[in-house]
């Protein structure tokens, strides 16, 4: 099996609320069914899926985008392609896994250029919560490369993870890592 690199980016979610609500309150409302978990954002239906809270208090789940047009096709090399057939109420799902630490409003985001960007996640949160939410990058790959190019020396930075299959895997990993920090 071929190796695949999975990248994570780190953001701080900034909420401007006139209602004195927090993202913790918002996630609780989605989990309890008081708020819709899906909404249209920039031409696609997007959804918080398998949203859950760990016993340590951080939130995790998937942010999914449903694509119903320009569907992929499949074929063998040199053969005509066959379009994928879906029912009218189905779409291709492109997803990102995430972990949200509410005490510091930190979002750990699985990078996937074909799926969503944290700005779309912030748009989703803004649309469904009624508050303005922004995703401010903390440390991205390009920022780290710029730091290293100027010969800035990090005191300690080491992350090594396997490809996440499900969000519970990420919870277990983050639980172990937070105890060692």
Helix content: 10-25%
Major beta-sheet overview? 7 strands, antiparallel
The helix tally amounts to: 4
Order of helices and strands: EHEEEEEEEHEHH
Classify the beta-strand content into a percent band. Answer: 25-35%
What would you call the structural class? alpha+beta
Gross morphology: globular
Over the alpha carbons, how many angstroms does the gyration radius reach? 18 Å
Spatial sequence of strands, sheet with the most strands: 2-3-4-7-8-1-9
The parts where pLDDT drops under 50 for at least 5 residues are none
Task: Note the gap between the termini.
Answer: 33 Å
Mean pLDDT: 83
Task: Tell me how many strands there are.
Answer: 9
Structure description:
There is one protein chain. With 181 residues, the protein is of the alpha+beta class. The protein is 24% helix and 34% strand. The protein contains 4 helices and 9 strands. The strands form 2 sheets. It has a 7-stranded antiparallel β-sheet with strand order 2-3-4-7-8-1-9, with helices on both faces. It has a two-stranded antiparallel ribbon with strand order 5-6. Strand 2 (38-41) and strand 3 form a beta hairpin. The radius of gyration is 18 Å and the shape is globular. The model has no long low-confidence stretch (mean pLDDT 83).
């Amino acid at each position: 099996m071929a190796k695949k690199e999975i990248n994570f980016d780190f953001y701080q979610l900034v909420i401007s609320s006139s209602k004195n609500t927090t993202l913790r309150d918002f996630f609780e409302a989605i989990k309890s069914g008081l708020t819709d978990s899906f909404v249209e954002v920039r031409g696609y239906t997007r959804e918080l899926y398998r949203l859950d809270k760990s016993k340590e208090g951080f939130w995790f789940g998937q942010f999914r985008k449903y694509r119903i047009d320009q569907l992929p096709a499949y074929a063998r090399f040199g053969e005509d392609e066959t379009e994928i057939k879906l029912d009218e109420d189905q779409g291709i799902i492109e997803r990102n896994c995430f972990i949200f630490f509410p005490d510091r409003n930190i979002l750990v985001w699985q990078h996937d250029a074909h799926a969503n960007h944290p700005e779309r996640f912030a748009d989703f949160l803004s649309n469904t919560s009624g508050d303005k939410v922004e995703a401010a990058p903390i440390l991205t790959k390009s920022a780290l490369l710029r730091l290293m190019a100027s010969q800035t020396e990090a005191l300690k930075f080491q992350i090594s993870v396997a490809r996440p299959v499900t969000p519970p895997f990420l919870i277990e990993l983050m639980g172990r890592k937070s105890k060692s920090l």
